[in-house]
Amino acid sequence: MSLLLFVYTLLLIVASCSVLALQSFDSTRSSSLLVGTEWKLQLDIGLEPGTWMPKRYPGWAESGARLGLQVAVQFTNAPSTTAESLVGPLTDTYQLKVTSPPATFVSVDGQQTVEFEWVGGWCIQRPQSDIRNTEGGLVKPEGLLRFWLDCSSGAKRQDVQVLPGTRIFFTTGVWDDPVTLEKQEKEYNKLVMEVDELVQETKSNKAKAKDQNILQNFQTFRQMVGDSKKFDGLTRLRDAYYRALPPLTSPKSANGVIMAPNGSLVIKGNKDWLAGEEFLILGTFTTATADDE
Questions:
Q1: What is the pLDDT of residues 227-275, one digit of tens each?
Q2: Which domain holds residue 37?
Q3: Residues 164 and 224 in one domain
Q4: Beta bridge partners of 172
Q5: Residue span of the signal peptide, if any (predicted)?
């Protein structure tokens, strides 16, 4: 083999390796349309039904006080170097960037500043069955969005406190496929119309049955029984589509991504007597697109 041919072959090998490396790198990037979008989060920290915070931290929020903090974030497709079991596997976890200045709130000591680490992590899980939202209702969003932020400074307002260095976990619903969502909305509206038409038809049959003879009445009754079974099937399907759609008050980004209007906040608790991780309800949060006032 001549030196020129050897060098050419070596260059081909290097180029092939580079292509494979780039393909592998691209495969680690999230394809979700959530990437690149910015959102404002309004945290509402305080006593919530079912929380064990006062058991782990006696006296926590027993006065009923609340702590409100606002932070803006951007969802990036940079792979995270950290994984959290609650959020998702490392291969599907990406960096969450804080884009706002430190949060502020007013306490008896005046205005307080709260700092978050500039980078957190996020992951979208795809639920296979209904889950409960913050109001306790059953829903099935296109994606279950979970992410975390680290509150480096901590914060305290009366007896509501977030300790310095606390990792706060956020959970909410997300719809990041506008094309599929549009199809679901059309199918839902179609089912609503079919159910309404069936209801009107049943009312009409009941009215006609009053003036019918026995044979006619029997035929009408059979039709109404058939309509009842059809009605049950349609309403079940309609309700399933409804649970998969975002609430009407959900904020929507410029590229069509929709996020549920609210979600839950939890932190890790004391697990000295548990086999696995314990999470304590810290509060709730609401969402808005970055350009919302």
A1: 567 767 777 888 887 888 999 999 999 999 999 999 999 999 866 555 5
A2: 31-175+257-289
A3: no
A4: 145
A5: 1-21
